[in-house]
Amino acid sequence: MDIFQLDWITISILVLIFLLIMLISVRIYKAISRWRGFISNSHIKSINLTYLKSELPILKIFSSILLIKNRNFTSRNTPHIFFVGNYWFKKLYKVLIEAFCSNGYNVIFLNLFPDFIYNFKKGKDPLQINKTLSKLSKFLNTKGLINNSYYIYIDYSNKNYYYQNLFDDPNNHLIIAINPKLSKSKLISFHNKSLENPQKKLYFIFNHFSYLFLKNKTLKIIEKIHPKIIHDKKNIISIQKSRYNFRYYETILYGYIIKIIKKNA
Description:
Blueprint: H1 8-32, E1 44-48, E2 62-70, E3 80-85, H2 90-102, E4 107-112, H3 115-122, H4 129-142, E5 151-156, E6 172-178, H5 184-196, E7 201-207, H6 217-224, E8 236-239, H7 250-264
Parallel strand pairs: 3-4, 3-5, 5-6, 6-7, 7-8
Antiparallel strand pairs: 1-2, 2-4
């Protein structure tokens, strides 16, 4: 066989395609395996509470409910954390939850259904998250699974801003919303609520970019609003250079959250 009769152009194209597939595969593998999929701290235990949906129908909007506790911490004065998430950022949630528990906080993780199921489960009635958390806290207290009713609320569900009624809950110490969907009217509502309840603290944490180099849409809305509406921009945090999933900025995100908690709760 004459080597000069080979179709070197076709071979070169096939080699390039193979190398491209390998490069993409490596990048996907690195993205998937970057964080471990389990909690490594042996003192942290997880209790599946999803069965409570049959006893408390108000929990129907959540696909799973978990209580994550640190056996080394049993303080009755430390508020627990209600952490609401969705389907898309599970590994990041595990990293944050392990960090919270390692700092002595018990975490109740509530995982929302995807939007189309969530909207069907919720129905036309507005979500009364304060009633949901109040009933769940009371139930867990009765069962001896948590030590008190005081809690910190962290939302990373990417849902529309729905938790303004937590301002009226005396058991809520602090609200932290990560990348919430906010309109101008919702921001005005937040401003009015914060004036009515100055002791209640609400913080927003945003990624600076959404996709590629496009700035976060909600940050654009905030920048256009008159300062009288958002009177204290210290409560609005933008993590520079980060994108929607906070990839490579997870530690910075956690640092901001724990700093806020230590300062206010």
